[in-house]
């Protein structure tokens, strides 16, 4: 077999090693355009988990690599004169040059042919090769040449960065967030060998310009960085090596394989440097390719297997990198945060590290986070314990005069079980049990303002006496038997009206018994949905009046809070999104125009709703599709509602148009809540695939939302909050006397269960290499 590998970076060399081990007789040649010891860049970083993989696949190079490594356990965050250190991270650094020399030596030893200063312009010369590996890096000539086939997508990020080195020793992965007269600068730094550290500097484009970095030489820009970070460098130099300022390109390719050619490493996909995974991904691609070549019967089948088997892992890493880089791009959002909350945000930015996880590794740090959170709550007039605070989820919150006992919320969820809009026994039990279960706030399902405002024939409403009486009974029960507050969500289905019950076909039009539907513009939801009537002013006034009448009924029922539903493609949302609003009057066109009618309704409700009671608005912060609402629009929308008196923005997303492409995942809507809260400076509630109390605490402690709503988790577990309180030992959740023995038992058992669980986790976690090294070098205690 003949294998040609274009590119002698980590991906190309490691693939050569693993393939040669598998097929000692194969002729494997690596073509590298640079000289063997040409260096660019400084260190690379690997996690312990990556090194475990290297150990498994090629012990000799693993041993060699790890002899050369610098190890560390801590991440240190420097911000506004403070430093927070968090241990247990398990990283290793190594010089890129040394890594390449080790891999070259190992490849040579196995019989791989290494050709340097051998740039390849045209792969046609490899017609006799069975496999051609394209490992030619981020600017891959071959990915570009076959662009129509590989379909790369290049997302050039806004921040500028430069990769430098220094002689400054470091004992932790170090983030420095530095205020300057021009704006914020960030340094990501780590030591990779004795006397050498990598320094990646990052800043936003405006700060870059203001700091006069444009057009400076490498030396001049290194001098400027040395001035900014001089206090930390302590006289150590900054070193440069092709250290030009650049924008990071996030690259994704739709296809990785063409005939017998395969893209590997940065050539196929990149991961932002802030998660330090580029070299890891490149070498793990090589592992995946070698595995596939080992198992599949033909090269063609192996390449298919490689692409199919590897794609998910790469996309996951890219998603984590995206989340992380966005955090750094928007660091100014958090600049006013308490430093410990800021540091918590840095640690938890990419979702892998959470509140519970940090509690195990760095309990003092998390206690400090809890105390800072409790202090903020105390500053708002609550008499909470600051020295031994409960976890953020169990801290109270005030909106106008409504006080919530904790931050967990039952999200609005339609039960599709009302008859002519009248809630029944199911609703009484549903809301009652969730209130008893301990959540601080319960939302009603979307409650429709008129018969024709319903989504389905099973939707609840509040347009007549009978409905009002049933809702009053529910509200009274909640108030009499729990500490929960209850919020009425009012809505109008718009073009999604007259559709089937969820379990008969979500958003599908009713075949019989339907009613006429309204929207901002006459655009049906599905091609075969009813074409809605474009609302005229008379209808707008009627709808507004119906909203106010329903709110008046809600007031008489005793609801604590009122939410206006402007999300998910329903009537008011159809005005806001440009995808569903094609009007040419003063209610269409600009965002200000599109917001006009929803704001009119909100203002009318605000005037009718008691001044001491809060109001929220639910928005879709993105339409998840080209041309639709974006996170930036959501900030403008939130600002407009805040000016009109909204107390909380309930940040949901999507469901505007059928062909949207949401990016699902854990806590997938939380970044939008973060953006709205910390740019528009308004309280937010986040929601969406948040399933654990750990995630709730992570979101709150990082300042990404003020309240956290859970929908589906509450469908199967009304006592989600009470159980979480027991887990965290937060005895602050009211339980009705009838249920006290159950509460006492779970609180008692949770102490032991939690201890057992933590012990198991600690036992299951292998020692990091840094810990092992520290143990091995520890002097023996005197006898
Ligand atoms: C600022 C910055 C910091 C980073 N920090 C880290 C980090 O800390 N940890 C980490 O793991 N990763 C880091 N990376 C990422 C890392 O450098 C890359 O992801 C990794 O090197 C990818 O390996 P590769 O083999 O795919 O590509 P490369 O390392 O780019 O190798 C490609 C090789 O192909 C050669 N080549 C290109 N075209 C041709 C041709 N036509 N013919 C012959 N040869 C050719 C090139 O000379 C090069 O040697 C960082 C990247 C940047 C930009
Ligand atoms: C069965 C069901 C009904 C829903 N009904 C409503 C509703 O009436 N009003 C609303 O704003 N959102 C509604 N939603 C959306 C939820 O409030 C929530 O935003 C969504 O389920 C995501 O949160 P989760 O991942 O915690 O379930 C509903 C969701 C479900 C699962």
Give an overview of the whole structure.
The chain is of the alpha/beta class and 783 residues long. 41% of the residues lie in helices and 19% in strands. Strands 5, 6, 10, 11, 12, 13, 14 and 15 form an eight-stranded mixed sheet that branches. Strand 16 (257-258) and strand 17 (261-263) form a beta hairpin. Helix 10 (278-295) runs antiparallel to helix 11 and helix 21 (631-643) packs across helix 22. The protein starts with a strand and ends in a 6-residue tail after the last helix. 51% of the residues are buried. The model has no long low-confidence stretch (mean pLDDT 94). Residues 411-414, 445-446, 489, 502, 565, 618, 652, 687-690, 710-713 line the site of flavin mononucleotide.
């Amino acid at each position: 077999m003949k294998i040609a590998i274009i590119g002698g970076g980590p991906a190309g060399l490691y693939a050569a090693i693993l393939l040669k081990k598998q097929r000692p007789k194969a002729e494997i040649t690596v073509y590298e355009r640079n000289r063997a010891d040409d260096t660019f860049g400084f260190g690379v970083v690997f996690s312990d988990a990556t090194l475990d993989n290297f150990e498994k696949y090629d012990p000799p190079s693993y041993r060699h690599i790890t002899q050369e490594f610098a190890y560390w356990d801590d991440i240190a965050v420097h911000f506004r004169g403070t430093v927070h250190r968090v241990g247990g991270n398990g990283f290793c650094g190594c010089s890129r040059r040394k890594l390449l020399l080790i891999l070259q030596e190992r490849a040579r030893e196995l019989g791989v042919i290494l050709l340097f200063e051998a740039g390849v312009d045209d792969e046609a010369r490899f017609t006799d090769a069975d496999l051609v590996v394209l490992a030619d890096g981020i600017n891959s000539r071959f990915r570009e040449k076959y662009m129509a086939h590989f379909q790369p997508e290049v997302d050039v990020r806004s921040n500028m960065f430069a990769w430098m080195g220094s002689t400054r020793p470091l004992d932790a992965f170090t983030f420095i967030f530095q205020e300057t007269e021009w704006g914020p600068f960030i340094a990501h730094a780590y030591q990779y060998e004795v006397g050498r550290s990598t320094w990646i500097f990052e800043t936003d484009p405006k700060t870059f310009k203001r700091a006069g970095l444009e057009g400076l030489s490498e030396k001049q820009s290194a001098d400027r960085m040395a001035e900014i970070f001089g206090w930390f460098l302590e006289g150590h130099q900054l070193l440069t090596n092709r250290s030009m300022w650049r924008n990071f390109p996030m690259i994704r390719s739709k296809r990785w394989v063409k005939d017998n050619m395969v893209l590997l490493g940065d050539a196929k996909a990149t991961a932002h440097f802030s998660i330090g995974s580029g070299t890891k991904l490149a070498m793990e691609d090589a592992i995946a390719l070698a595995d596939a070549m080992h198992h599949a019967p033909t090269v063609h089948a192996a390449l298919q297997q490689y692409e199919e088997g590897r794609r998910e892992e790469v996309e996951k890493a890219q998603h984590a990198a995206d989340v992380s880089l966005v955090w750094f791009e928007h660091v100014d959002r958090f600049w006013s945060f308490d430093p410990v909350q800021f540091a918590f945000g840095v640690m938890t930015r990419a979702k892998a590290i959470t509140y519970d996880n940090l509690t195990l590794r760095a309990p003092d740090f998390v206690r400090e986070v809890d105390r800072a959170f409790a202090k903020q709550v105390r500053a708002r007039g609550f008499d909470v314990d600051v020295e031994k605070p409960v976890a953020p989820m169990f801290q109270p919150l005030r909106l106008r005069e409504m006080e919530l006992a904790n931050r967990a919320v039952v999200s609005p969820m339609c039960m599709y079980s009302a008859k002519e809009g009248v809630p029944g026994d199911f609703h009484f039990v549903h809301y009652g049990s969730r209130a008893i279960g301990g959540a601080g706030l319960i939302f009603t399902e979307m409650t429709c303002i008129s018969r024709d405002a319903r989504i389905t024939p099973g939707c609840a409403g509040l347009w007549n006496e009978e409905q009002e009486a049933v809702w009053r009974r529910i509200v009274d029960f909640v108030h009499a038997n729990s500490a929960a507050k209850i919020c009425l969500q009012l809505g109008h289905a718009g073009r999604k009206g007259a559709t089937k019950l969820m379990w008969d076909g979500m958003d599908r039009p009713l075949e019989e018994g339907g009613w006429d539907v309204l929207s901002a513009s006459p655009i049906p939801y599905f091609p075969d949905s009813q074409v809605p009537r474009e609302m005229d002013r008379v209808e707008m006034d009627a709808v507004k009046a119906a909203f106010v009448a329903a709110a008046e009924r809600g007031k008489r029922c005793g609801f604590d809070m009122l939410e206006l539903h402007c999300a998910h493609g329903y009537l008011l949302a159809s005005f806001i999104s440009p995808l569903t609003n094609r009007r040419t009057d003063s209610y269409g066109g600009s965002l200000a125009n599109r917001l006009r009618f929803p704001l009119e309704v909100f203002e009318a409700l605000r005037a009718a709703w008691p001044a001491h009671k809060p109001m929220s608005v639910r928005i879709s912060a993105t339409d998840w599709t080209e041309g639709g609402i974006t996170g930036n629009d959501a900030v403008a929308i939130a600002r407009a509602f805040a000016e009109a008196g909204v107390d909380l923005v309930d940040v949901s997303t999507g469901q505007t148009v059928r062909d949207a492409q949401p990016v699902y995942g854990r806590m997938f809507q939380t970044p939008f809540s973060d953006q709205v809260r910390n740019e528009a400076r308004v309280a937010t509630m986040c929601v969406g695939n948040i399933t654990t109390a750990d995630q709730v605490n992570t979101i709150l402690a990082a300042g990404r939302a003020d309240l956290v709503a859970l929908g589906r988790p509450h469908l199967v577990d009304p006592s989600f909050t009470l159980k979480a309180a027991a887990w965290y030992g937060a005895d602050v959740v009211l339980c009705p006397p009838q249920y006290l023995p159950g509460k006492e038992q779970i609180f008692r058992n949770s102490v032991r269960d939690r201890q057992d669980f933590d012990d198991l986790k600690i036992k299951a976690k292998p020692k990091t290499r840094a810990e092992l090294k520290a143990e091995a070098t520890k002097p023996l205690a005197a006898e």
